[in-house]
Design a protein that fits this description.
Number of strands of chain A: 5
CATH class of the largest domain in chain B: Mainly Alpha
Mean pLDDT of chain A: 85
CATH architecture of chain A: 3-Layer(aba) Sandwich
Largest sheet of chain B: 5 strands, antiparallel
Low-confidence stretches of chain A: none
Low-confidence stretches of chain B: 1-12, 462-472
Largest sheet of chain A: 5 strands, mixed
CATH topology of the largest domain in chain B: Cytochrome-c3 Hydrogenase, chain B
Order of helices and strands of chain A: EHEHEEHEH
Helix content of chain A: 25-40%
Strand content of chain A: 15-25%
Radius of gyration of chain B: 22 Å
Radius of gyration of chain A: 15 Å
Number of domains of chain A: 1
Helix content of chain B: 40-55%
Oligomer: heterodimer
Number of strands of chain B: 17
Distance between the termini of chain A: 17 Å
Distance between the termini of chain B: 37 Å
Number of helices of chain B: 17
Amino acid sequence: MARRQALVIGIGNRLRSDDGAGIRVAEALEAQATGLQVLVCDQLTPELAEPISQARAVLFIDAQMSDASEPTAEAPVEAHLQPLEASTLGDPSGHALTPQRLLALSAALYGPCPPAWQLLIPGEHWQVGDQLSAHTAAACRNAVPVALAWGARHA
Amino acid sequence: MTTNHATDANQPARRTITIDPVTRIEGHAKISIHLDAAGAVDTARFHVTEYRGFEKFCEGRPFTEMAGITARICGICPVSHLLAAAATGDKILAVQIPPAAEKLRRLMNLAQITQSHALSFFHLSSPDFLLGWESDSAKRNIFGLIAANPELARSGIRLRQFGQGVIEALGGRKIHAAWAVPGGVRSPLSPETRDQIRQDLPDAFAIAEQGLALFKHLLDTQLREEMEVFGHFPSLFMGLVRSEGTWEHSSGRHCAGIRVMASDGSLVADGLKEDDYASFLAEAVEPWSYLKFPYIKALGPEAGSYRVGPLARLNLCERIGTERADRELLELRQRGGRVVTASFLYHLARLIEILACLEQMEQLLDDPELTATHVRARASVNCHEAVGVSEAPRGTLLHHYRVDANGLIERVNLIIATGQNNSAMNRTITQIARHYLDGNNLSEALLNRVEAGIRCFDPCLSCSTHAAGQMPLQVQLFSSEGELLQQRRRD
């Protein structure tokens, strides 16, 4: 099967403060008409297995709980691009899946899945709210060119 | 409207088994099974440990934003909140929405029920039925299902995609489509989009029929005991009905209001208006759960506890009103009685509702009014307090807003379907534990069954506690003195 576009999946809830980072970066990519297929979702659900199976490559963009309890102005605000492997390990399937399990689901249902990466954006605040923290907003800005470069490699 | 009831203050010392977290439901919770000094199951509790927050967050926001905000409570059933919020907004504007808008909202709710029930049956619950209670929990999931029956797994995905596709076609997005607004909907349905939806219906019908045939076969051959043990008890049932006593899922001009029925088929109340919910519903709280326990106020927390959702809706109606679904409803009643009290048959009810949804979608798509372009009535704030209602996949959903003269929200109360099944879920796991627990042996089969008892109700704790989260199973066994005897956890 000929694989189509590279696929970006932004994950998060924009009413959970920094949890909305993944969606915001994905939407920024979509606004730049990059030729990428962009999907956004609150959580990863089984039906995403099919578009994944048809993609040339997949990038999951999500917020990540920062290790540092008190981030400082000097702390790096980088988004981390990491390769992902399909895995059936971890949390049993529920309403939501991990990227690794979703890749495994796609492979099990539709055949070998495309190469995949995740871009994790450090977040600090997860309470109800529609604003990003300054730290995470900066990380989002830094994440966009990282994702664009990924898109250019897989166009 | 909140009262306390039954606490542990006078209970004798006992042992406790805890299942935490419960898997394959949405949100975070745990189950504890309390044993008496003789080692028999005294009671079991479904603890919800997430905290609600959305109601407070909404204060000060324009009521016109409520559809968009409350839809983000949950990634699984945003459409239900969207429609309930829009219905509440209609009342704040004090308008009757255009007929096309009402039909389009109904179409979206039918698609929402279809996709949500598809996920519940095909992906979350069918591994329990097909792989067996003794099977390893690491394999008793969607991947085990794919290995055992890949076509069923793919069918489930296709049916969910169908429902999501209709939602996207109407609202422009699969999730959080802020398309239903106070006064109607933002955009009409084009004939081309209508025809595309129609094209996809035959496959959806075939999958629904496949699921029904499979599950009825399993009920007849290997799931008879589950029907008797998984939450089989009398209770009240509550939900919307249509004016001619048929199945209903949305408020609107043909809705006859809320009906409450007892297990013997007698009507406890009928034609209740959502605006008056505070007069007939009350919520009890327990110190061990954030999830409240709604009940029919006049009957008290015990006798007044009720079930909502697919099984309730099918019990409450005289008939569904479409040919294929009515045939299945008749068969359901032959299997379980006029009022079905076996919670395990929630699964069958879901499949019948999928069929009903598809048939009603087919009828709506043939209605020329569906593509009319007048889809929104406009007005300003004409009413400062309103209650809207809709049937979510999991049951009756009520939104109650109070706004100021500028339409800014002063107070919000959300009555969620999963919360209304809270008492029933606790009774279900108690019944299962009493039947299957053997001494101190926390067998895999017991844990699987207790979890599956909860899954009969397909609870969504993100909605019911208004917090976002996911639910991974921990089991703890305590002696009558509170000593931890055994613990098992699944991550």
